[in-house]
Specification:
heterodimer; A: 336 residues; alpha/beta; five-stranded parallel beta sheet; 56% helix; elongated; B: 367 residues; alpha+beta; DNA Polymerase III, Chain A, domain 2; 3 domains; 13-stranded antiparallel beta sheet; 45% strand
Amino acid sequence: MKEVNDLMGQEALLDRLRHAIKVNKVAHAYLITGEAGSGKRALARAFTEALFCEIEPESEKQGQMDHLRLIETGNHPDVAIVEPEGARIRIDQIRGLQDKFALRSYAGYWKVGIIAGAETMTAAAANSLLKLLEEPSGKAVIMLLAESQSQLLPTIVSRCQIIALKPVPKKQIAVYLQKEYGVSVDAALVIAGLADGALGRAREIIEGDLFQWREKALAVIAAKRAQGLMALDLARSLDAEPGAIEFTLHVFATWFRDLMLVAKGCDQDLLVHQDYLPELLAGSSDYNVLEYQGAIREIKDTLRAINENANRRLALDALFYQMVDLSSFSKVSEVK
Amino acid sequence: MQFTVMQDDLLRCLQMVEKAVAVRDTAPILTGVYLECQNGRLTVRGSDSELTIEAYCSVEVVQEGNLVLEAKFFIPLIRRLPAGEVTVKLRPEQQMLEINAGSGSFQLMIMSGEEYPELDIAGREPLVNISSPLLAKMIRQTVYATEKDSGHSAFTGLLMEGTSEEIRLVATDSSRLCFNRQQLPHGSEFDIIVPARTCTELLRILPSDDESLLEISLLGNQVVFTLEDAVVVSRLLEGKYPDYNRVIPKSGDVEITAPCQELRAALGRANLMGKRGPAIVTFDLADGVLNLRSQDPDLGESEETLVVEHVGEEVKSSFQARFILEMLRTVESEKVTIRLTNGLNPGIMRPADSEDYLYVIMPVRTV
């Protein structure tokens, strides 16, 4: 049941893959792309389950195996999952996969290899995968999961059939959140907006209790006085809870995006922070679009710096301080 | 689950299955050892989903049941226990297994036995029965020639081929090829490629007494070796084994027969001349005297002569010393026959008294 929901909005892709099984046109290799939380794993798993379920009844000889349960618990002997060890997928891991694929399948049906975070493969790992992608022995399928195909070697991409996950419409996510988590209509819409069409991310916002950080972030922006102090206070609490940094910065980025949209008079349905419409209307005239753009760029740079091990506290302090005085961003962007 | 077992029985079972237990696996349950007691018998199983080994011993069962224990702790513990009775008892309320032996008492965390992959070999399709020591000898005389590193081809396994009259084992790494056959009536037609690791593990647990028979059978894509007190199940390798008959030369210029021990000792010395790479030894044969020469520019040279039985012309050919040594180590006869051909044609070796064990070796080009 949960699986079906995870794949909400991607049913067409799964149908396409199921059809390929039915007409016996399953490719050797698939590249499933989509943002973090868009359901790549869910799709890979649903496809894997479909491969083992669409077994024709006459070959029920080994039917005692409970494929679905084994796949769910990660114990299926014919399904190998490769994940980054640390930050990268190393060549030894790909060699291990090749060793597994050199064996005949355990159950006598498909052999499935799922490489999650395929963009983290080292060049050596990716190159050693090429041969396996081209001609795996026996009935075998390899699925590579990556955020975008541009992060992979062209030689890898050209050997795969590409399955691109599309963002799920905001309304659809919102309805799901209301039903599944009992979130209010307004909150559901905002969360759906912040999730950028990735259902997994929407769930993470709710399950990780991240939504409260939006109030804290927007309080800084809405404050009339002592904005600088509030900003530093937010930086301090974020430093203590690094898991919320990405989300909070995303709230700021979408806020400036909304300001741009309001300033240009766009449809309100497109706004993420619809419940703050008065503040957005008031704020949109304060600065010009160039400055908002500069702010968004600076937020992205800061996030990247933090992910690359910059001092969290310093980076956040600097960013928030600048945000209080937005005009500094346009200067920065001009210099750049 | 509760039973009493002799420490040496349990340890013997654990040592049999130990090498099949996954060291690090995506399926955490496989890093454990599966135990099941039923009808006065204890089943011990280890598996990494490629290779599964199961061993049995008789125990005094108080209460039937099954569970999985972390192999890394359980096996060393049993190894260190004093000889004598070991009492094993599950405390269900704590999910702990209590082990009592001598004056010691140990509690181990358990994993659920239901999660462990089942092994049901009832539907297997028997291929052939063979005596354990014979199969062990055949494996020993072939498995060393399988491809070790790189490549994921059929060459990393051992070809087992059966006809109604004989069974054949073949291994090659494309520099040499081992062929071993034994008469075995009432067999069936089959050809399977068994991973070298499975064969090595099988060799380790095969009993050495001449009486015991073992059954080779197929279970889907897996091969099953059924012993008296153990079962080994292994996945097979993909791919088609090349036609090895084309590789085995039918004739040669010269045939020599040499005493195995002496040749082995001489080659052992020649093999030392390999600092930069593998030692190459040149066989130079004239008038019943075999001259063995090897050299290494950084080390020096070695040369010795051996009197051999010699049929044919003069001949000169060079080989990797290690390859020949590996073959000689597995020969049980006193003498070995080598057939050589001038130029870059393969040499062929066999025990002097048998045509059933053939070793084809490619020569090395020397300046």
